Amino acid sequence: METVSNIIFDFFDKFLGQAPLLLGTVVLIGYLLLKKPWYDAVAGFIKTYVGFRILQVGTGGLVGTFRPIIDAIYDRFEVNALLIGPYYGQSSGETVLQSLDSLQFVAYVMLIAFVFNIILVALKKHTKIRTLFLTGHIMYQQSVVLLWALFWVIDGGQGEVGWFLVLVTGVLVGTYWSVASNLVVEATNDVTDGAGFSIGHQQMFGAWLAYKVASKIGDRKQDVNEMELPGWLSVLNDNVVANVVIMTFFIGTLMIIIGPSSFDFDQGRYYWGTYIFETTSLFAVYITIIITGVRMFVAELTNSFQGISDKLLPGSVPAVDCAVTFGFSPNAPAWGFMFGFAGQLLAIGALILFDSPILIIAGFIPLFFDNGTLAVFANKAGGRKAAAIIPFFAGLLQVFGSALVLNLLVTDGVIGWMGMFDWATFFSGATIITSVIGILFPIILIPLLLIIPQLQYKRHKENYFTTMIDDRVRKE
Question: Would you list the domain boundaries of the chain?
Answer without folding.
Answer: 2-467
